[in-house]
Task: structure prediction
Amino acid sequence: MKVIGYIHSGKLGKNENDFLRISKEKGIEVRLLNISQSIDLKELQEMELCDIIYNDSGEDFAIEFIKIFENMGIPVVESSKAYFDENKWNFYEKCIKHGIPAPLTIKLSKNTEDIKKQLVEFNHWPVILKRVRGTWGEFVARANNVDEAINVIEGFWNRGGTKHIPIIAQEFIDSFSYRVTYIGDEILQTAIKENNNWKCTGVYAKNFKTFDIDPALKDIVQKIMKYTDIKICGIDLLKKGDEWLVIEANAEPALDFFEIERTMLIEKIIDLIAKLCPNERFEGSEPIIISNSNDCNDKSQNLLFD
Result:
């Protein structure tokens, strides 16, 4: 029997319960790891018995657990490289390198005076300011001039408690947000995220409807499949006239745009995970169990907070 380690955060909801139900119907065992709670050594030992780890927590810090499991030699669905691609600046650089159209973007300094000079030179107003990491539209704001931009950036620093997470400036595109979801090599869902406000991503969108994939968009999606490490992905795009522009690629994408398609997407995810499971991972040897020594425990802690 295949065993999936399932990382989640908080109480089990619709997606988690359906994942458990469908996995059971397919003869797959699921071991849960709730990273919103303290994790002890015994729980990490139990995850060592899994064939593969799937992170569905939506938490930015989950990458630290992914690093731990990679170090333990446990296969993961989305590697730490995938979360590197989620970084908005890294993803933008990859888009430019591979000819994927994206809004004009610059990475800002951590020095206020330098930022002012950068924004004056960039000269795209209004400008969108974002931290390179963030979900649900958090740490994303619009500014109409340099003074507003500095206020926004200082607000990010104060609210986030650090200057160490870089901030990007991006040209503002007056557009609804378009989402394309793919699992493996299969495009499975499209959704237009509409709102009367300028911010249509994350929890800010109020209305959803589907749209067709045209040849230009299909080419963009196929390039993202090829050049990123994200296997279960939600791509966010804007339209500038008739041109598609990619904003970002998201691992662990939302599955709830259309309730009628939600369980279909979960089943597709489980099928992909089952295919990614190594055949007979423990054939010829016993699974490696983490020692209960202080040295091993210290190593796990170092990986978690690295």
Remarks:
- The chain has three domains: 3-78+262-305, 104-171, 174-251.
- Residues 142 and 148 are 9 Å apart (CA to CA).
- The first helix runs from residue 14 to 25.
